[in-house]
Amino acid sequence: MDLIIEGIKKAFYLLITFDPEVMGITLLSLRVSGTATLISLFIGISIGATVALSRFPGKRFVISLINTGMGLPPVVVGLFVTILLWRNGPLGFFEILYTPTAMIIAQAIIATPIVMGITLAAIQHLPEKLRLQILALGATRIQMVWILIKEARLPLLAAVMAGFGGVISEIGASIMVGGNIKGYSRVLTTATVMETSRGNFDIAIALSIILLLLAYVINSILTSIQQRERPR
Amino acid sequence: MSESTPILEARDLEVNKGGTITLKVPSLIIQNGEILSLIGPNGAGKTTLLQTLSYLQKPFQGKILFKGHEMGSNHSIIEYRRKLAMVFQEPLLFDTTVYENVASGLKIRGMRKTEIRQRVMDQLNRFGIGHLGFRSARTLSGGEAQRASLARAFAIQPEVLLLDEPFASLDPPTRESIIEDLETVLRQTRTTTIFATHDRLEALRLSGQIAVMNGGKILQVGTPEEVMNHPLNEFIASFVGVETILHGRVIKRDGGTFAVSISDQRIEAVGEAHLGEEVILCIRPENVTLSTHLSHGETSARNILSGRIVKITRLGLYQKVYLHCGFPLVAYVTNQSLDELSLVEGKEIQVSFKATAVSVIRKGNGIQK
Predict the structure, then answer these.
(1) Which chain A residues touch B152 with a CB distance below 8 Å?
(2) How many helices and strands in chain B, by DSSP H and E?
(3) Over the stretch B11-62, which tens digit does the pLDDT of each residue have?
(4) Using CB atoms within 10 A of its CB, is residue B354 exposed (0-12), middle (13-18) or buried (19+)?
(5) Is the bond leading into B59 cis (omega within 30 degrees of zero)?
(6) Torsions phi, psi of B267, nearest 5?
(7) DSSP character for A94?
(8) Which residues of A touch B165 (CB under 8 A)?
(9) Is B90 in Cβ contact with A136 (below 8 Å)?
(10) Which of B52, B104, B106, B165 has the most A C-beta neighbours within 10 Å, making it the best mutation to test the interface with A?
(11) Which of A207, B21, B237, B276 is least enclosed, having the fewest CB within 10 Å?
């Protein structure tokens, strides 16, 4: 019991004194996962909307692939990104394995299907006739897609939450492609694992609290936007 | 382009969905400023026709000419669509303010903000929703939402307005007031309009031309009078509100009039028919007169029959009386007449209608199912 109380006390000390190492880890986590989420929004929304709005043979198969991708195991992503970026791998010449860039790539790969799947469902869920109405108003195809995305903005906020939530708490891929290098590629989750295995529960608890807080703050902001927008 | 070039013309339109032909219109011509109603039951092809005319339903066969020109490339289809506006049965408003909704068509056209504001405010006021401009479209009642949808359509000042049963899901008082406003706006703007509805009274009220549709085909096009008084076939007759449709055989001809035998009764009608020919007679309920005592010589009505009242139902301001005079016949009477003649179910009564009130469909005119 002492262990836990002592740990929590020390954790709060680290937090309120803005311990430089803890802060550095936190900021890197935000930067990596934030960038990865942005990339995944860009790719996921455009492809998700395109698939939702086009008719082609094998569409069901593509949709089931995307939905499967929503549950992509991070370690599998980590493995493949590692192989691709390995020194003599196909993309080894970029020399970005064990860098934050590699982590962003891996996390973007994890988040993209999540955003894509939710976008697809959200756009498909809009009434079919809305599309006709937009075209009847004289919209080009691009204008129509843009209007539909705006119409689906609330479910798309859920996509942002799910994507960011998925990657900020992800560990397998980050540790494999980032290497958990102190002061360089160490993020909240990888640091928590390492400190726990070393028995440094105080730091591990402090990092976990930050992780929880981050998840809470970001989701509550998005939730409040969502709730304000839709009063019914 | 000459004066007489129709604003919109369709030639040999055909839409084929999975092997069934859902639309087959050899020719449809809409003149500038005309209001054409498409009437017909659900599934008649009204929506398909409107969506095909606006290139929303593809693919189709045939030609659509706008002011004599055919659309080809994607670009010109968008240019063409920007001259049209369409209002659907559902308001289909966007999840934003009423103002933004009404402005949406103008924004799509890249119009300047100051100009948009002027046009949007004009339309909001015109449709009586000026005070709702900054409300969320999601908080509107059904009637307000449909007004916003109409305002959005008129904001782009369309050359052709397509209305796809825009009032079908509104309650009667709301529908009445919106139709009144639409009527006023159409009179002011003289916008060429194609108005699909299954309500023949709406059609009569708004349009100069009526096209009756069924099974993907246009069965008859004409002025309301032509379609109502001279329906080309039995289906049209029943759809435009002829309550009594009788099948009989011509038994006598006499210079412009002829007599038809129906269930041992004789009905006189005006027109040409051969002896022995099978014809269909249509009698509108408003043309049937009921009286307690009547004999030939007291009236110009050529048809006087004895009948019995089978049933009386109330139709708002008047009553619908079902009669049996050897064959079933329906008449409308006012509440006053009902009282004065003490009409009750089971009562025997004299029934009369003029020979000119009988419209005749000769079987050669292709009977629809």
Answers:
(1) 137
(2) 10, 20
(3) 999 998 888 889 999 999 999 999 999 999 888 999 999 999 999 987 888 8
(4) middle
(5) yes
(6) -125, 135
(7) G
(8) none
(9) no
(10) B104
(11) B276
Q: Judge: A136–B85 Cβ closer than 8 Å, yes or no.
A: yes
**A138 at interface of B, judged by CB pairs closer than 8 A:** yes
List chain B residues with pLDDT less than 50.
1-2, 366-369
- Most A CBs within 10 Å, among B56, B116, B152, to test the A interface: B56
For B229, counting Cβ atoms within 10 Å of its Cβ (0-12 exposed, 13-18 middle, 19+ buried), the class is middle
CB A29 within 8 A of CB A187: yes
What distance in Å separates the CA atoms of residue B265 and residue B302, rounded to the nearest whole number? Answer: 13
- pLDDT given at position B367: 36
A136 contact partners, CB below 8 Å, separation of at least 6: B54, B56, B81, B84, B85, B86, B162
Phi, psi of B38 (to 5 degrees): -105, 115
The answer to whether B141 and B175 are in contact (CB under 8 A) is no
Per the structure block, which two tokens stand in for A106? 């891996």
ipTM of the complex: 0.80
Tell me the two tokens of residue B51: 């969506």
Q: B192-197 and B160-164: which strand pairing? A: parallel
Residue type, B244: T
User: Has this prediction a pTM greater than 0.90?
Assistant: no
CA A202 to chain centre: 27
Read off the tokens for B233: 């076939």
